[in-house]
Amino acid sequence: MAPAEHDEGAGKAAVPARSYWRWHRDDFFPEPSFASWGAYRRALGETPSRLRDRLAGRSTDAAELGALRRRSENEMRRCLTWWDLTWFGFGSVIGAGIFVLTGQEAHDHAGPAIVLSYVASGLSAMLSVFCYTEFAVEIPVAGGSFAYLRVELGDAAAFIAAANLILESVIGTAAVARSWTSYLASLINKPASALRIHAPGLAPGYDELDPIAVVVIAVTATLAMLTAKGTSRVNWVASAVHVVVIGFVIVAGFIHANPANLRPFMPYGVPGVFRAAAIVYFAYGGFDNIATMAEETKNPSRDIPLGLLGSMSVITAIYCIMALVLSMMQPYTAIDTSAAYSVAFASVGMHWAQYVVALGALKGMTTVLLVGALGQARYTTHIARSHIIPPVFALVHPRTGTPVHATALIAVCSACIALFSSLDVLSSLLSVSTLFIFMMMATALLVRRYYVRGVTTRTHALRFTALLLLIVASSVGIAAYWGTSPERWQGYVVLVPAWAAATLGIQLLVPAARAPKVWGVPLVPWLPSLSIATNLFLMGSLGKDAFIRFGVCTAVMLVYYVLVGLHATYDVAHGACGGEEDDDGDAAADGEKKKVVAASDVEKADAAGGAL
Questions:
Q1: 473 vs 464: CA distance, rounded Å
Q2: Domains assigned to the chain
Q3: What confidence tens digit (pLDDT) does each residue in 106-115 have?
């Protein structure tokens, strides 16, 4: 950050001279709409007009980088490099997904073809990584996808993302923490549920209490509160040890591999492969935590592409190889669904190896929780900066330079979920939420490239909107057709060409309105459009129970938005809290005009694949 901006933020923080630990009502609800019951009733009466205002409202790059960051009162410290981000990538991604979900999905849905499931989900994840990387370089703030969607799709879309991000943070942490307990039990040669407390009075799936998961969440969250750089050091040492364990698993596994175990390769058919792919996508979900650390990165334009793309490329290869090893060590029907790798080594006579694997899994899951505590708190911090949730959670501690309140919020909620809910209840809901956000990110990238207010003509805007809707609609159609009639092909004859025609239409009929300044996704609009299609396709491969849970959670979130979030963000956007207006105004539109390059230059940049 420029020194002047830092000084301005510091000056604003110094004027109130207030303690970081504040718990008054105004710290949670400072907006005029919540000043009294009468004011709240008036705000509720204006809900339709306020909703229209927020649907049309947009933030700007400058607002996210300036006004919103100053609401934290203290700066996060720029202390991270590409080396930190690369190891954060390993630490945040390799954990419960590969060690737990691989066995679960190979046994239940894919068989040895679980390798193809990892290829499919990895391909979709890499497309999302491209989108995240461009946004993180252009808008290096802690909010990640929430900030990016707020700029390109508006407040309402950003709220949907914010709600799902918090849901994803809470459920993801809880799922990994419960897996941690299972592998600890394996390490001491006990059944997976031996360290949990059985509560027969509760419903199945919620009747095994896990106090160890609660303790693990508390410890990792405390470290994340104390220091970002110190957490990075702990992470890369633990991740390095974890990589050594993974190397052992691969080498020893291939030594004891039996190719006969790969037959039948696809016992559940192609639908089983994609059903498993949608679930194991959870294994790739942690990479978005890296984007949230852009605000603390010394050189975002260089460090983020190196950290994100480098770590995810290696991780995708590791996942596919490890899935192949597991499938060759045991018949898919014999794979243990709770501690697959440990049991697999025991089955080939390497009983001692199960302890190495269990220890490596514990290390991996610990770093996932550690990096998750960092990244999820930064999402929450930026969401609170917008006042969608109480702004007290946006505050950065003056001594540690970390968002202590936001970290504690996610930790407490995750611990409550982890205490009761089993992994199979959590993972499918988490996958729907993750895939939905990644689909929105790809949509936002297309909007960023092809629409700039005050630059894009009305004709081109309408044309772009129609073609983008056709991309989404055809992708939804493909996913729905696959989910209902996977053995039939006639529908694809219409739907796939429709998707391709819409994507080609954007390329040929809508001039690009903006080019990336430093690093850009190559082959736009094709790669973002493909990301939309693959994420929706994987969503369509999930069972109906996941969508029922997702629908219920979304309905609860929308009720909260209408009753609270809408009125808080409306007041802030219109300066009613003494803050700066966030919406994109005429001055911002004029600024955007200056940044726009000729469409021919954009096409050349896209053809070259972007510059790293």
A1: 14
A2: 61-542 (1.20.1740.10)
A3: 999 999 999 9
Sequential DSSP letters for 403-447: -HHHHHHHHHHHHHHHHH--HHHHHHHHHHHHHHHHHHHHHHHHH
Q: 532: exposed, middle or buried (C-beta count within 10 Å: 0-12, 13-18, 19+)? A: buried
Tell me the two tokens of residue 527. Answer: 């790669």
| pLDDT score of 206 more than 80 | no
365, 99 contact by CB (below 8 A) = yes
Report residue 197: phi and psi, to 5°: -100, 120
Please calculate the CA angle 488-494-496 and round it to the nearest 5 degrees. Answer: 90
CA distances from 468 to 56, 442, 526, 553 (A): 18, 11, 12, 27
Determine contact, residues 59/387, Cβ cutoff 8 Å.
no
pTM of the predicted model as reported, rounded to 2 decimal places: 0.81
Whole-angstrom distance, CA of residue 209 vs CA of residue 199: 7
H-run or E-run covering 209: strand 208-209
Coil, strand, or helix at residue 58? coil
Amino acid residing at 497? P
- pLDDT, one tens digit per residue, over 237-285 is 888 888 888 899 899 999 989 999 998 999 998 888 988 888 887 778 7
DSSP character for 284?
G
Q: Are 446 and 524 in contact (CB under 8 A)?
A: yes
Cis ω for the linkage preceding 32 (within 30 of 0)? no
